[in-house]
Amino acid sequence: MADHEIVSTEPATGAVLWRRAAGSADEEVGVARASWAAWAARPFAYRAETLRRFANVVRAKADAFTDLIARETGKPIWEARGEVESVIAKVEISIAAYADRTAQRRLDAPMGSRMALRHKPHGVLAVLGPYNFPAHLPNGHIGPALLAGNAVVFKPSEKTPASGAMLVDCLHAAGVPAGCVRLLVGGPDQGRALASHPDIDGLLFTGSARTGIALNRAFADKPEKILALEMGGNNPIVVWDTPDMHTAAVLIAQSAFTSAGQRCTAARRLIVEGRLYDALVDQLVRLSKRMIVGEPHADPAPFMGPVIDNEAADGLTESFLAMLMKGGRAIRHLERPIDSRPFLNPALIDTTNMADRPDVELFGPILQVIRCDDFDEAIAIANDTRYGLSASLISQTPSLYDRFWANIRAGIVNWNKPTNGASSNAPFGGIGWSGNHRPSAYYAADYCAYPVVSSESDAARASIGIGLKDG
Questions:
Q1: Which residues are designated catalytic?
Q2: Residue 18, C-beta contacts closer than 8 angstroms, at least 6 positions apart
Q3: 434-463 residues labelled b (16+ CB within 10 A) or e (exposed)
Q4: Pick from 187, 183, 147: nearest CA to 447
Q5: Per-residue pLDDT tens digits for 263-277
Q6: pLDDT digits over 370-398, tens only?
Q7: Cβ–Cβ contacts within 10 Å for residue 431, how many?
């Protein structure tokens, strides 16, 4: 499987950024398998200090790392800088989460004995990373896995391998043993080989629902292996009973168009109270037309860059046209200013009268708008999806938020806040096609080690007081 080359190009320019021969899952898993026990035997304090050194290495290389992420993903410099800062901040959060979620504890026990709770690492964990946050999201798996004492084989997205390689280089430079974090360069073939490898003890995945469901199916007869799935969303944002249309439009635009819509928590569907529709849509169109779409280093700074590649841009264009064919009404058309590059403007389409709205994650800057006159119906429309990642309500009425929170199906439920921008200090994940009830971020510690409960006594004492014949 190591007979071809992976080439990374800049979405904004098409220039070749990085190239390397594809690797071998067998080789990388073999090295990790031989290395993990020594790392697991180290005290937690040693592993934590090693990860703190990693944070310092990233801090020292922040400008270069920021530039690389911006070039490889197409996201603006300001956004790439935020990603690097998240990588750094994640270390202390992960250390605190490990102590909180998986610390050694004494439990109540009868006199003369002890009950202890400790946690053990799984062994070798595979990490499959996405292209939209090529450093921050895999780091959210890798850091907690290493802290728990696992070794990691990391396959970055074939669309952003350079950022993944730099992440691994920083870990090695900090003193994480080379055998305990392995970089597997490759495409879908290498990903499948890693996911199905008999010598991994689990898989931590961030990506599309289609791939996640395939992995779930492949792991169905492997209950001994941990599987953590963080997938996408068809996320709703509901606007009801609120007076400030400009602020609402800003929150919606941030939700739908940040990262060119390439966030799993991005708003895909705007459900708006009928009496607010015209004023809100007018504000939203005005704001979307002011948004600068440009290359990462442009001056003035763009709000959003291109989507990841021409294939993605073509697919989004086809999806927009398909919705028009099925009864959608264009509010602002999806346009592509440069035919050969994947830049797209923020687009809005009214799907109120579409008989069959597509329940898919359109991973780009397309927002569907649905008009509604009953709040319970708005919640029903919001819940009309197989996904369940993120949902937000913009409203000045606390009782409406109480109803929204109680009835919406999502792992992240916000009020007068965007659907995206989740905190690493909290668990992150969803239900349905958005995940398998193993939230990442602060709760990543939960799936990187398993609990071991021990009943202990310094001396063996035992008797049977009933049910025996006289001796």
A1: 230, 264
A2: 7, 8, 72, 161, 162, 165
A3: bbbebbbbbbbbbbbbeeeeeeeeeeeeee
A4: 147
A5: 999 999 999 999 999
A6: 999 999 999 999 999 999 999 999 999 99
A7: 16
